[in-house]
Amino acid sequence: MVIANGLSIIWLDTHIGVIGDYLGFKERFKSNLQAIANMPPNGINELIYYFENNVAPIHFVSTSENALALIQYHTDKKIVFISSGALGKEIIPTIVSDYPRVQSYYIFCLNMAIMAEWALESDYDSVMQMFDHETDLLLALVRDISVDIIKLGRSYMQVNDGENARKCFVTAETLEMQANAINICRAPLMTRLQLLQGENGLIAQARQLQQ
């Protein structure tokens, strides 16, 4: 995994189930996606599987207590925190106050207007993104992590480590391509792929360092 040693992702939602219930989570995604035209559930599964095996594991929890326990356990990692709206309102003030290594928050909620007002009043809006569908949340997370992986790859380039740089850039490329494949209702986002691909792209530059 290209950044697993420095990143932990915690997803808190009552409906997800017990810790480690990955298959149940995927089934929930399948169920929710069946009503959406042209949205391939298999693509969602493949993206989650690739993300967990090549980027960082996603820790699924169903209670605030378990979420805090994981945050306390991962003392050496930056943490991305994902939550439903109701649980997020309960736990995020504690996290912001006591655990500054939690670097960003993604909220899934049906009433985004109420959550947005709460975030603004609490001064959380600069570190929080909100979504009313889980797929949009997942795609935003993947693309944000892709940016971080590219930055990590560039840092390897600066110390002439072409092998690890190439791994980062190829991982980011795969995430971007899979996100585009899933999000077929919208035009594909090509900015980062254009940066990564081609004769003068970052992947080619990293390979040149290996020679």
Structural class: alpha/beta
Terminal CA distance: 23 Å
Whole-angstrom Rg: 18 Å
Helix content: 55-70%
Mean pLDDT: 84
Share of residues in strands? 5-15%
Largest sheet: 5 strands, parallel
In terms of topology, how is this protein built?
Blueprint: E1 7-12, H1 22-33, H2 41-54, E2 58-61, H3 64-73, E3 78-84, H4 85-98, E4 102-108, H5 112-122, E5 128-131, H6 134-158, H7 162-182, H8 191-196, H9 202-210
Parallel strand pairs: 1-2, 1-3, 3-4, 4-5
Helix pairs in contact: 1-2, 2-7, 6-7, 7-9
Give a written overview of the molecule.
This protein has 9 helices and 5 strands; from the N terminus they run E-H-H-E-H-E-H-E-H-E-H-H-H-H. The relative contact order is 0.14. The protein has 211 residues and is of the alpha/beta class. It has a 5-stranded parallel sheet. The radius of gyration is 18 Å and the shape is globular. Helix 4 (85-98) links the parallel strand 3 (78-84) and strand 4. The chain has helices at residues 22-33, 41-54, 64-73, 85-98, 112-122, 134-158, 162-182, 191-196, 202-210, and strands at 7-12, 58-61, 78-84, 102-108, 128-131. The model is unreliable at 17-22 and 29-41 (pLDDT under 50). Helix 1 packs antiparallel against helix 2 (41-54), helix 2 (41-54) packs antiparallel against helix 7 (162-182) and helix 6 runs antiparallel to helix 7. The protein is 58% helix and 13% strand.
